[in-house]
Amino acid sequence: MKSLGNIYLAWRRATGERRHRVGIIRRNSTQGVRFRYLVSQKEAANIGFMPYTGFPDLSREYTENVLEIFGQRLTKSEREDIRKYYDFWEIQPECKDDKYYLLAHTQGLLATDNFEFLADYMPQKDLSFTSEICGLSHNKIKADVIAAGDILQWEYEKNNRYDPKAVKIFKDGNFVGYVKTVHSSVFYKKGGSRLKIVVKSVDSNGYLNRVFIKIFM
Question: Taking residues 24-35, what's their average pLDDT?
Answer without folding.
Answer: 95
